[in-house]
Amino acid sequence: MAVAAEAADPRHFDITHPAAVLGILFIILAVVFKTSTMPSCRRFYAIVPAILLCYFIPSLLSTIGLVGDVPMHPGGHDLYWVASRFLLPACLVLLTVSVDLPGILRLGPKLLVLFFTATVGVVLGGPLALGIIWIFDPSLPGSADPHELWKGLSTVAGSWIGGGANQLAMKEIFLPGEDLFSQMVAVDVIVANIWMGFLLWMAARAGAFDRWLKADRSAIDNLTERVRAMQSGRSRIATTNDFFVLLAVAFGIVGLSHIVAEPLAHWFETVWPGSKTFSLNKPFFWLIVLSTSMGVAASFMRSARTLEDVGASRIGTVFLYTLVAVIGLRMDLRALVDAPVLFLLGIIWIGFQGALLFLVAKLIKAPSFFIAVASQANIGGAASAPVVAGAFNPRLAPVGVLLAVLGYAVGTYAALLCANLMKAMSAPPPEEHHGLFGLLEAVMPMLG
Predict the structure, then answer these.
(1) Which of 156, 209, 233, 283 has CA 20 to 30 A from 328's CA?
(2) Which residue has the higher pLDDT, 386 or 295?
(3) Alpha-carbon distance 251 to 91, whole Å?
(4) Cα–chain-centroid distance for residue 192?
């Protein structure tokens, strides 16, 4: 059955009706998640992560012209617009409202030091990798405009600090081209999974790494007991009332954020013309910042944190993967062949974060487990951080979840900082200096 809008995309997709497209996407997501839990598919998903398929299958259908996402009528909104304006901020609220900050603080200072070291590694590693690549290749093949590349890299920063929700927030704030974003998704997923493979390899050799780090292993035993005490007996079966409360909190905050975002962006644009440098004149910027901030603020109330007991983060994850599938419809797989240099940039970027983590861990004598879970909580988010943590000790898997949720909370702010550092580097400075020279010229005036 083909349902098409005549004035839609000139490529004339066969299926464009939003209801039909949404149904196809949910079928894809259901099949991916169902098969990912089947023992017969375990080896396949150990190599190909589920989130990659959630991007890849819809993008494949879009690339071959079978399915597309277009407005139903002139001036109407497509699935992506609805998902990004409603599901994305609601997802951020549900993922941050459950942050148990007091509980996270009780995990110990060394683990938190390494978590924020990993965050700093991503923030600084992006502009550093961009500068190194520019030294050898100022043209940066694979990007239509080298000075716009930072917009695409901002989405990688969002993913590698918080997760998919933060990545898509950066996409909507900085608006990279669809081809560039397709390349960035490939860089994100492939490089991040190479790094995860290294961390799992390290887990099998934790003893050797800990001896080199001269780490205090008793910290892991203490951490195991604290986590077990924090997690015991909290989850319960959600009722209809619970679901309505969850939706009321999520979409109530989203609605308030929409109300405030438009006039706030207009005020910045009117009062401070230079605000566009930091995207302060964009309503979507404030929608994401306000939703995240109010979610974090709500997490300080015990009654709000108990929403996690009835599945706040699980519903948030459903929203997130729905948006991921919708994003896939806008990707063109043919753009991936033009991005070899971007994979090198990603490897340098994530390598800098790893080197910084090992250096700090060596200085504070932290165990290799702390390195792995702190890094993966940033790079992989809640989907894979518990996998890495569990590879060291199954009882410590919840630590990955806790830190990953903290990553959702700080991801938006840290990714914005990283994006603006990369933007400062990308602006053509006087006398056509590029790369590290451009970053130095941009940053030195800030340092006085």
Answers:
(1) 283
(2) 295
(3) 10
(4) 11
- pLDDT at position 241 is 92
Q: Return d(Cα 65, Cα 83) in angstroms, integer.
A: 22
Number of helical H runs and strand E runs in the chain: 21, 0
- Among candidates 440, 418, 423, 422, which has minimal Cα distance to 431? 440
Q: Quick one: DSSP state of residue 67?
A: B
Amino acid at 240: T
Using DSSP's 3-state secondary structure scheme, residue 416 falls into helix
State the Cα–Cα distance between residues 99 and 385, nearest whole angstrom: 15
For residue 64, what are its two tokens? 């071959």
| Predicted pLDDT at 11 | 46
Predicted TM-score of the model (pTM): 0.65
Q: How far is CA 175 from CA 154, 325, 375, in A?
A: 10, 18, 27
Residue 206 above 70 pLDDT?
A: yes
Q: How far apart are CA 69 and CA 4, in angstroms?
A: 10
Tokens (6 digits) for 343: 């994979």
pLDDT value, residue 27: 95
Mean pLDDT of the chain: 78
Question: Cα dist. 20→3, 11, 36, 56, 359 in Å?
Answer: 8, 18, 24, 19, 52
What pLDDT score does 435 carry?
A: 46
